[in-house]
Queue: 2 jobs
Job 1
Amino acid sequence: MRTLIAFVAAVLFAPLSHAEENRIQRVISPGGIEAWLVEEQAIPMVAVEIMFAGGAHVDAEGQEGAAYLTAGLIEEGAGDMDSQGFALRKEDLSARIGFNSGRDDFTVGMRALTANLDDSFELLHIALTEPTFEQRQIDRVRDQVLSGMKSDLVNPDTQGATEWFKQMFPGSTYGRPTKGTPESVKALTRDNLVETYGRMVAKSRMKIGVVGDIDAATLGPLLDKTFGDLPEGEALDRSPIELSNVSGTHLIQADIPQSTVMLGHEGILRGDDDFIIAYVMNHIFGGGSFNSRLYEEVREKNGLAYSVYSYLSPYDRAGLYMGGVATANERVKQSIDLIRAEWARLANEGVTEEELEKAKKFLTGAFALRFDSNAKIARYLAGLQAADLSIDYIDTRNDLVNAVTKEDVDRVAKRILKPDDLFIVVVGNPTDLDE
Amino acid sequence: MRRLFAALAVALVPQAALAEPVVTSFELDNGMRGVVIEDHRAPVVTHMVWYKVGSADETPGKTGIAHYLEHLLFKGTEKFPNGRFSEIVAENGGRENAFTSRDYTGYFQNIAADRLDLMMEMEADRMRNLVIGDDDWQAERDVVGEERRTRTDNVPSAKFREQFSAALYLGHPYGTPVIGWKAEVEALTKEDALEFYARFYAPKNAILVVAGDVDPVEVEALAKKYYGKIESVDLPEHVRGVEPPHLAERRISMTDPRVAQPQFMRGYLAPSYITAKPGEAEGLVLLADILGGGSTRRMQRVLTRDADMAIYAGAYYSGLARDHGEFVVYAGPKGDTSLAAIEGAVDWMLEDLLENGVTDEELARSKKSLIADEIYSQDSQRALAREYGAALTIGMSIEDIQGWRGRVEATTAEDVMNAARKVLDRKRSVTGILKGPDAEKKEAAE
């Protein structure tokens, strides 16, 4: 029997017949600040995502970890609010604001209730333009970062990744840990942080995505008030970074029952003409579904791992093609050999028409699933802009996937996959590795 | 850690007046229940089937079977053999997965709304018609073994958590890890899995949750068509172990060379949403938030800021369980601070709370913050479906779920203190210490 539990103005919920693509608006504020907006009134909230190109990129030599530390400090005091005052204000507004700094970007995420929109944007404005970087808070957050780093040093995943990047990008920004090193972080001064922050959080490097219960006319002036007085900023160095020619297997001995394996070599950049083809290829090879070749061979047939995967990793200044597996110490070599053989098989023999058709069906059908929350869509909108894609990209994306041919994939597999170039870092206590 | 648990608890609340989610329910003749949560923002749907069976229902000696069976459900049926299920989901642009917990096991697909029909056909088929081949169950058991290594054996804090739970429960199966004890998992067989499957996978033990761009009338018609034709099976009486009274407080201490940041953790056995007296569970949610729900709360304010003796600190209540809840406080000492000092400071804070109560302002702030979390939680269709499923599976009603916000708003400082006095009893607690070799030396030198 069907019970009607709640029936609240169902008319308001008339299905939105159009998909996301038709709904992205380019909003240019009176002061010239651009944001991409999707209006969505179903929930009384607005999600905002702001990306500043930079991140660990902007750390000066010897000041590694500066950008990461500033991300932890913005909420610890801004304007005339101290750490506690800022947190209380955020709570009063029921706003959620978070800052993060990665290899290529410094990101800010905010979720605000429609009822408190103006005040929430004003709080964001103060946080972005008047962070106090009080010495006591610097010391406190620095201690937290240092504690996290100590844990990273005994975490097999971070140990492996740190070593991989260090050897693949010797002496360049990508070779240094995003969080810095204990030495560099201990040496950071307040001036270093203020200076790093000033270079990073600038208008010319900013991309904004907004999704939720707000219209363009309301958003425009808020953009000016919030971001208008940020500095213009200088252009970021986006010249390519060279990869080293390191290959083979590097072992980091660790007394754990399961070894973590990270492997990869050069890939392609997001702007490369072959990117979508490579994306389809990766889905077939080791992308995120229960049907990839690696999943089938390593997990389903041989039970060697719970997780095995590959992915394209297009950083701003270097592209990578990566894979990973975690397996019992006794089966490390067997797993690596199997993955390497698959690497070679795809490069030499390409894919089948059937695999390609299945991949297209999945990738085109699942595309809409990415847009299931305001916060995710906001992140996607900022990401599209950061990748220099056009505002109608979402419209054309499935057509691009559908246009990929078997010849394309076979050619790109040969271009990218180089089994002999693989640089493999193993963390664990493997018993069957002979290197 | 806290965030996850808090999120589970808070997200139970329905919406602010402006956007109450429309939730309807029905029951099929064979005893299966269905719940529909409408979300018309995008033409997608989340289709889930929840079974009221989890690791707490396992036979002694067969720990891990509920989770192992969850893996095996992807192997196939006569109609959709050899992984066809996953292939079809993928070919239709869907994503899928499954999860096992102490009280429930769930399967879901996230897919274009017009493919719901097909998903129901396949999910209904594997409720009773699982076929496990002779050669694929061993490999899958190895996969589970690797999953256990990844999640637990390789991670000192997870091994510690496992020991901690085992110490907290004297007799009840919540003390057993969901993934199972290593030696027992390695010995599980295809027959074990099929026996467990036959016993627990049946319409009366299942709840269908559909969230998304759907019409509830159509969902019910489809459910009748596919799930409704499954024969009703009576479930055998199943009794879980009963937790005896706790008379002695317990302490565990673990040293692992791969621990860089020492940790103090105290867990108290608490009522769950199901076993709590009116107002108790809501009192505990608020108590956890007042003590350790963020940077403006007592533990963080005192321990990580004013006294500057902790790297992190917090508290959480996990009450979404059939038989028992847990109330936990934890902290990571900073620099030269010893674990004994941090434990002393936490104890002092708990005593102070029991003696002096909570202020009206603290209570108001915590209520406000929990209710805002609830509005934001509406933003994820999958999360919402999952929270409804979990709450319904353990025995809450839709009315219970939707009344949560009102009950939190009505909770008084006295309710919070009653819950605190009942739960914060050392006899019902485990104190856990996790440390690396360095901290070991430091404590010894004191």
Job 2
Amino acid sequence: MDPETQSMKLTFNIHGGDFTHAGQPSSEVKKVLKQLGIDGKTIKGIVIALYEAEVNVVAHAWKGTVEVEIDESKITIIVRDEGPGIPDIELAMQAGYSTASKKVREMGFGAGMGLPNMKKNTDELIIESEVDKGTTVKMINYFL
Amino acid sequence: MKVSEIVEKLGLTIFSGREGLDREITGGYVSDLLSDVMGNAQEGQAWITLQVHQNVMAIASLKDMAAVILVNNLEPHENTVRHSDDENIPVLGTSLSTFEIAGKLYQLFNQ
């Protein structure tokens, strides 16, 4: 915790295609929120949303970062990637829509449930994307 | 019911995560789609699946699941085993199909 601003910042790197480390940022964030005494239901939602965002970077992009900021009232997570981008965000938000590769689908990912899961488990979700450049996802969850 | 009890009653193989055998099981969840489990499984459930790679353990751990049960004689990947031991979440196995083992587990919880 920074005593001046009463906030805490965490940063992680994600590499495209690296499924072995998918889930590490979510696992870290879960631990920190538990230590801060945030209620279980709120933690569960944040962890689901962040894990899905991580997997999206691993499955679709070349590389990305996760920036987490926690203050007394909320957690803000920004997942930024360099990747192919999303041409039609509205379409991508539809349950069941996916552009994942065969390999990714065989692993049980790519069912088109990730973005809907993120929407359902965040208080605010903002997605900005530029084709062939990358995607930035901002998620905010307020503590009870 | 503890994980060790379902191991005994359903004749399951223990691949890893033995230190988690005294975890309490609240029920089961059946799915091979990881986002489905991520979104819908509940803490304390045993997850029945045919996925054997280590992302299964990442999800089981994030969701605080009690155990993973692999069907059809499938075996976990080496890094799945390692992750299971680290997290103390047992990976179990059965020769039965998903349908059969889910039915038996359901019966244990509803008899």
